[in-house]
Amino acid sequence: MSTIETRVARILTVGTRIAVALLATGSILLVAGGTSPLARPWPPLDPASLPADLLALQPAAFLWLGLIATIATPLLRVAASTWGFWRAGERRMAALGLAVLVVIALAVVAGSLAG
Amino acid sequence: MIVGLLLAVGGFGAGVFGSLLGLGGGILIVPLLTVGFGVPFREAVGVSLVCVIVTSSAAAGVYLERHTANLRLGMLLEVFTATGALLGGLVAFLLPERVLAGLFAALLAFTAYSMLRRSRAHVARPAPPAAADGPGPAGDTGRDPGPSTRSLADEVAGPGYRPRRLGAGAGGSLGAGVMSALLGVGGGIVKVPLMNLVMGVPLKAATATSNLMIGVTAAASAVVYLLRGGIDPYLAGPTAVGVFAGALVGSRLAARIDVRVLRLLFVGVLALTAAQMAMRALG
Predict the structure, then answer these.
(1) Which of A43, A101, A102, B233 has the greatest number of CB atoms lying within 10 Å of its CB?
(2) Beta-carbon neighbour count of residue B227 at 10 Å?
C-alpha cells in the first residue's frame, strides 16, 4: 500500500525540481537579456518551435517548458496513483483517479475550444 | 532586469510568509501582482495558479513520504475540486475583473478574520469523533473484508479516523475548486475546515491532504488559462521560482519563529490589502 505513496511522492519531488529548474533557467536568461517581465505581448506557446528555441537559449522556450512541467507534475501524480491502485486491485480508487483524468481532459478540450 | 528581480523577491517573501502562516501563496501573489505591479487581475490569477501548483507539489511530496496526507481521500475529493476548477476556469473569463477583485477582497477579509480568531484561540477545538455516525475503519473489527465489500468511507479512511459526510465534503470541494480557479488561490481556507470540522479528519491530515489536492485543482484551471493564453510566462517564471525558494526557507524557519506576533501583523496587512482590492472593485 505504501509503495503507491512513495512512488507518487517521488514523481512530485522530481517533477517539481525539473519544473523549477526550467523556470529558473528561463528567468535568468530573461533578466540577463534585458527583457522586462512586464513586456507585452508575451510570446505565445508554440510546441512545434520549442526544441529549436531551447537550443537557441530563448528564455520563453524554457519558461513555457517549465510551465508545462509544472502543470503536468500533479497530473502525472494522478495517473501514477490510478495505475498503482489498479494494479493493487483497488478498482474503486482507480476509477476515481480515472474520473479526475477525464475532468482534466475536458479542461483541455474546453480550453482549446474557448481559446 | 530590476522588475524581474523584484518579482522574484516579492515571490520569495510571499513564499516565506505563506509557509510560516500556513497559507498558500495565491492569497499573497494576486495582491502582489495587481497592487504592486499593476498587472490585470486575470493575468495575476494565471500566474498565481502556477505558483500554487509549484508549492503544493513540493510540499505534497514530503507529506506523502511522511504518510501525513491521505492519498485516497484526496483523490476522492479531487474529482469535485477539479470539476469546480474546470467550471471556474471557464466562468473566470466571462466575469468582469471588478467582480473578481470584489470577490478577492471578500476572501482576504475572511482570511484575516479567520487568522485573528485562530490567534485568539490558542487551543484548537478538537475534531468530532470520527466514528460518530458509523462504524470505525474496517481494520477496527479485526478483519479486512477487502476493497470490493468495503464502503467508500472505509476505503478512504486514515490511521485512527474514518471520514464522514462524504456528500457534504464533495459539495464543499466543488465550491473550493470554483474559488481556486476564479481567484488563483489553493482553496485551503475552505478545504481544511471542511475536512476537519465537517468530515472529522484530524487537522494535521486535513492540512496535508488539502495541500496534496491543491496541485490537481489548480492544474485543472491552469490548463484552461494556459490554452486561452491567460498565463504570462515572463511574469510566472521569476515569481514561481521566488515562491518556491521562499517556501523552502519558510518551512525551515517555521520551527524557530513564534508566528503569533507575525500572524497579528499579517492580519493587518491582509485587511489593508482587502481594502485596496475593494476600492479596485468599486473603481
Answers:
(1) B233
(2) 20
Residue A36: its chain B contacts at CB < 8 A? Answer: 3-4, 234
Question: Are the beta carbons of B173 and B87 closer than 8 angstroms?
Answer: no
CA B51 from centre of chain: 11
Rounded distance, CA B129 to CA B199, Å?
A: 10
Which H/E stretch holds residue B169? helix B166-183
Facing B220 at nearest CB: one of A30, A38, A107: A107
Interface residue A87 vs chain B (CB under 8 A): no
Query: Residue B119 burial by CB count (10 A; 0-12/13-18/19+): exposed, middle or buried?
Result: middle
A103 contacts in chain B (CB < 8 Å): 79, 82-83, 86, 220
Sign of the CA dihedral with B240 first, then B246, B248, and B251 last: negative
Give the closest residue to A74 by CA, choosing from A12, A23, A17, A18.
Answer: A12
Please give the Cα distance from A98 to A84 (Å, whole number): 12
Q: Residue B161: helix, strand or coil by DSSP?
A: strand
- In this structure, are residues B10 and B239 in contact, taking their beta carbons and an 8 Å threshold? yes
Inter-chain contacts counted by CB atoms under 8 A, chains A and B: 202
For chain A, the structural domain boundaries read 2-114
Q: What is the pLDDT along chain A (115 residues), one digit of tens a residue?
A: 458 999 999 999 999 999 999 999 999 999 999 888 888 888 888 999 999 999 999 999 999 999 999 999 999 999 999 999 999 999 999 999 999 999 999 999 998 887 6
Enter the ipTM.
Answer: 0.94
